Amino acid sequence: MPTSLRRLALVPEPYPGESLLSWVDALAGLNRISRLQALHLSSFVRGSAYRPGAYFVAYLPTEVMARVQVTTGLSAGQLHRITLMHYADGVLPSPPSPTHRRGIAIWLHRLQLAQPIRSRACPACLRENGGRWLLRWRLIWSFACVRHRVFLLSACHGCGQGLHEVLRGPATSEVCGQTDWHRPVYVCQRSIWRMRPPRLSDAHLLECQRRLDDVVDHPHRPGSTDILRTLHLALDDVSHYNGCAPSLPDTDAVLHQRWQGHSDVSWYLDDPLLTAALIKIATVGGLAASQEVYAQVSMASWSTDGFPRTTDVLPVNRFGGLCRATACLAWVPPGQGVVVHTKRGPLVLCPTHVDDAKSGSYGSVPPPIAESFASRP
How far separated are the first and last CA of the chain, in Å rounded? Predict the structure, then answer.
């Protein structure tokens, strides 16, 4: 390690659940310097060029982590917890090449589960915690703030560009700081803290977000991966086969307006409102009116690992989805059909094709898992 590296005098403690870029901004604010200066003083980047790409918030190379440990006094564990790699092998699957920067960026792009370059946000949370951006806001599973009962924002109300991006400009945790490409001399100075997100009154979606937060905050708990993979499958089914999926159930007016105005639902990664609409469809769309059917897919089902206790029963379809049997495009409502786990991932089958799954046509049924999630009230 070069002897020129020195320990910085003023270093903030990482806020619980904070992202790496947010912590760098906190370091800059504490020392009254720019983000770029903070990156250089803490040895995240070296030389005159500022080139942290999409991998910056996701992953710190070993040599960078070693330098930053010297300059900041943070441990390797603390630095790891504020990057998206904290979720690997849990909420996010294991990356194919954990030591290759470009491989990490490509892997995250293909997953369509995280936004390493930009973030969603709750302005009220930012005001309360002094501008500390949460790491989970960069995951698609964060579409609302349960505490303040609002949908998260994903774009600046002033310039319309993404929030808290990894960029060269004078961006901070409070001000947008984006450059308008049509007006190079213009820098957006809109205060993110003062933006007003849409209110969320749908109790079902609030409970969905509360349980998703619990899963994300415990990324390596047994069963987390299964819950999120099957939900992601359902969201993809709705986004890619919208004509076969049920319509958006009754919910907040702002969701209906966004749903009717969308041109390409596959871009839900960029839009918390579209994410919420897809989750609404996947969790309650197509439900029968009977209490018995509703009970089968109550939110309590999120508190279990979803696997059977005996090998002769297939996992229940916790969320909605299209039947993946050959030439079958039936929408399978939550609580009906089964989920078969194959090498390609979880596949949903309608009740008509359950026997095919039991016969082994779609792969073997996984063994039971001993540990399950603790129930939430």
Answer: 51
Contact criterion met (CB below 8 Å) for 175 and 190:
yes
Helices (H) and strands (E) in the chain, counts: 12, 8
Q: What is the pTM of this model?
A: 0.84
Convert the pLDDT of each residue in 97-129 to its tens digit.
666 667 787 888 888 888 888 899 999 999 999
What six digits make up the tokens of 265?
């639902």
- b/e per residue 320-355 (b: at least 16 CB within 10 A): bbbbbbeeeebbbbbbbbbbbbeeeebbbbbeebbe
* Nearest in space to 2 (alpha carbons), one of 55, 46, 34: 46
Give the count of beta carbons closer than 10 Å to the beta carbon of residue 240: 12
CA distances from 235 to 245, 256, 261, 320, 350 (A): 10, 17, 18, 9, 17
The tokens of 147 are what? Answer: 């505490």
Alpha-carbon gap, residue 293 to 243, rounded angstroms? 24
Report the phi/psi class of residue 337: left, alpha or beta, with left for phi > 0 and alpha for psi in -120 to 50: left
Bridge partners (DSSP) listed for residue 162 = 155
Using left for φ > 0, alpha for ψ between -120 and 50, and beta otherwise, residue 373 falls in: beta
- Residue 196 dihedral angles phi and psi, to the nearest 5°: -110, 110
